[in-house]
Amino acid sequence: xxxxxxxxxxxxxxxxxxxxxxxxxxxxxxxxxxxxxxxxxxxxxxxxxxxxxxxxxxxxxxxxxxxxxxxxxxxxxxxxxxxxxxxxxxxxxxxxxxxxxxxxxxxxxxxxxxxxxxxxxxxxxxxxxxxxxxxxxxxxxxxxxxxxxxxxxxxxxxxxxxxxxxxxxxxxxxxxxxxxxxxxxxxxxxxxxxxxxxxxxxxxxxxxxxxxxxxxxxxxxxxxxxxxxxxxxxxxxxxxxxxxxxxxxxxxxxxxxxxxxxxxxxxxxxxxxxxxxxxxxxx
Length: 283
Ligand code: SF4
Hints:
Endonuclease III, domain 1
């Protein structure tokens, strides 16, 4: 009988485990960064509100009583001038309206004027056929439905031909001092976007953003201030950032920080606006 070979020593379980592929431990998770106090970043609602408040403060000093650059002596005249001002300049409208109002001084007179004769007078303002039709139509409705008086609500005003929300705001705010909204024309819209008070191009959406940012009792003057600032300083092609009293607040500022203080720049802008631009530009 042959002897049994000695039994193989059994591997201890611990040994077997040591030969198994070693699983890597998952990397330790990074601890989340400690929470920082929230700063008002550029573009946040908080920053926008704060900027609007500063813009309001500076523009109120710059143009305490901002003028309307359309010449008028009554709500009716302002309504007609504003309808005519679409796609034209206030300067041009101010040349045309004295002759228009001398010839047809009231809504009744204009309502019965001939289309052809009115067209000849308003021709220099552009789009003269539509404009002549609009002001004659507005005159007729004012006589028939509003007793010869320019109405005092946005709804009634926008029921007149040629009158959209912007024109209604101009007439209510400037002629009646009723704060129905903020007038947003091409200048005001551009300034509001450069100051990042809005991201919109659509004037009604810009107006909604601005009315949420500015106090209601400042709506009328804010509209005029933004229009005038855009017309004389924040020009479309080449904004005059070095002369701008809002330069430190503006995310779109071009060039170096201005040398003059903001109040000195505000004074210069006021002089320029009151002279309707007829002053020499700063060197
Ligand atoms: S700093 Fe320049 S871009 Fe900004 S509001 Fe003034 S003129 Fe316009």
